[in-house]
Design a protein that fits this description.
The chain has 5 helices and 21 strands. It is mostly beta strands. It has a 21-stranded mixed beta sheet that branches. A hairpin with a 4-residue loop joins β15 and β16. It is elongated and about 80 Å long.
């Protein structure tokens, strides 16, 4: 009887070894991939599965449909650290590579999703993540190289990629409640701290750059020198303070501003411009101070209050005081004083002033 029991156990072990060996073979991998696909059909579709889960496992094409997104990829390969992942508390991969990975988000209900969904059921470690092209809706980046070690208490990553032909480095760390990110791009460094579990996503941001060339994004020559930006807020509103030297196609100077904003516009409690000069006109501003409101809900609008400026026009002293000024895409309105446009027609045309209404205070020789 004992012999038969030992024989049954040995046969069971042998059968298990044969099954596992078959599944770990290339043919077994294809069989396993087909079985997984059948379980998740029609959400998951796989084409061209090759390799083995003991080494590198690849699929030529795949797509996965979720209620919130559709994920498609090409030439995806995964190599797992099986012994590290055997405790089922962490997924550990030696590498995850793809030629192309695209994520298209789908419309969801207006109800806010629970922040509990952000917590990780287990740790995720990827020693090397490499994606030739990664797209999320209309956002595209290329040549992504990254190393990840994501856990609820530390979202650690170190990545480099190319966005709009510009090299970018991104590092992250910290728990969900105080996640930090450092972004290096365009000659600037941005450091962000945010509570990713809070509904309003409160954050604190600091950006510094010695020289930022922004001409390709502004559509005209534009450079910022010694720029410093600090901001704190959430998804609804924020406060900020910024200072920078500006070299623009129309003017040069130094700008300092502080204020608050929301989705509809920005309110500047303080706006200061110093040592400014128009490029194609004999106008120089030694000092300008004002309060301002910039709105972009529906149409662009600019409002200035308590404007005080000192400078020169054609090397003659110039001073301006404006209790109120408003501007939109079609007109400029000055309140108080006498209307006497003093800028040359070429300058007025360059700043797109189509019509003057009202009056303004002007003192100085013209």
């Amino acid at each position: 009887m004992l012999r038969w029991s030992i024989l049954v156990v040995l046969m069971g072990v042998l059968l298990a070894v044969l099954v596992v060996g078959a599944l770990l073979s290339p043919a077994g991998t294809r069989l396993l991939a087909g079985y997984v696909e059948s379980l998740l059909e029609p959400a998951l579709e796989l084409e061209g599965a090759t390799g083995s889960i003991l080494g590198e496992l690849c699929v030529e094409r795949f797509s996965y449909t979720h209620e919130q997104a559709v994920v498609t990829g090409r030439s995806l390969c995964v190599e797992a650290n099986l012994w590290t992942s055997i405790d089922f508390l962490q997924v550990s991969l030696e590498s995850l590579t793809a030629e192309r990975l695209e994520i298209r988000t789908l419309p969801t209900s207006s109800e806010a999703s629970s922040t509990d969904a952000l917590s990780l059921p287990m740790g995720v470690e990827i020693e090397r993540l490499a994606i030739g092209l990664l797209g999320v809706d209309d956002f595209m980046l290329t040549d992504l190289e990254s190393a990840l070690d994501l856990r609820d208490d530390d979202l650690k990553s170190n990545s480099t990629f190319v966005f709009d032909e510009q090299s970018v480095r991104l590092t992250t760390s910290g728990p969900w409640r105080a996640a930090t990110a450092r972004l290096e791009a365009l000659g600037a460094v941005a450091e962000l701290t945010a509570d990713l579990l809070a509904a309003e996503l409160p954050y604190q941001l600091e950006v510094r750059g010695e020289r930022l060339a922004l001409s390709r994004y502004a559509g005209r020559p534009l450079t910022l020198d010694n720029m410093v930006l600090g901001a704190r807020g959430d998804l609804q509103q924020y406060r900020f303070e910024v200072s920078s030297g500006v070299t623009d196609a129309l003017a040069t100077g130094t700008v300092k501003a502080a204020g608050s904003g929301d989705w509809n516009g920005v309110e500047l409690d303080r706006l200061e411009i110093a040592d400014a000069r128009l490029v194609d006109a004999p106008v120089a501003i030694q000092m300008l101070s004002a309060r301002a409101r910039i709105g972009w809900q529906g149409t662009f609008e600019l409002g200035l209050r308590d404007v005080v400026a000192r400078g020169s026009f054609d090397d003659r002293p110039l001073s301006v005081r404006l209790p109120e000024l408003s501007m939109n895409e079609a007109s400029v309105t000055f309140v108080s004083g006498e209307l006497r446009p003093f800028l040359p027609a070429t300058v007025a045309s360059a700043i797109r002033v189509f019509r003057f209404d009202g009056r303004y205070d002007f003192a100085g020789a013209v």
